[in-house]
Amino acid sequence: AVVSTQSTGQQIVKSLSRALRKTFQEEYLAAKQNPIKWEAATTANFGNMDLSEAKRILNIEEIEDRDALQEQTEQLLAMNDKKNPKNKGIGSGYLQSKILNAKERIEYELDTKEKQ
């Protein structure tokens, strides 16, 4: 029974590896065919987030004000922090990562504009 369980576990790992490899290859080829996705994938990694998605996540229309960006980010992170007593143990690490990716994406856009 132990040998059977190990074999099944190994088969699952191999299947998952193949599926992940195939998905990665498909995404890579799709990104290569779309110049916007390709640039996003090769220049910086923000979870493949475009600027409009980042603005929606942070509920920001204009991106020129870094202080407003920082303030909104901190507020949203606090709202999704399980350790914050106001949240009574409710929060989401996933949402926090999306918020940070959105902030980094907008900061990247601001830095690019400043260099021009």
Describe the structure.
- This protein is mainly α and 116 residues long.
- It contains five helices and no strands.
- The chain has helices at residues 2-33, 35-43, 51-58, 66-79, 93-115.
- The chain starts with a helix and ends with a helix.
- The model has no long low-confidence stretch (mean pLDDT 80).
Summary keywords:
about 0% strand, about 75% helix, about 120 residues, mainly alpha
Please provide the ordered H/E string of secondary-structure elements: HHHHH
Shape: flat
Could you give the count of β-strands?
A: 0
Q: What is the typical, i.e. mean, pLDDT?
A: 80
Distance between the termini: 66 Å
Uncertain parts: none
Cα gyration radius (Å): 20 Å
Q: How much β-strand is present in the residues?
A: under 5%
What profile does the largest beta sheet have? none
The structure class reads mainly alpha
State the share of residues found in helices, binned by percent: over 70%
Individual helix count: 5
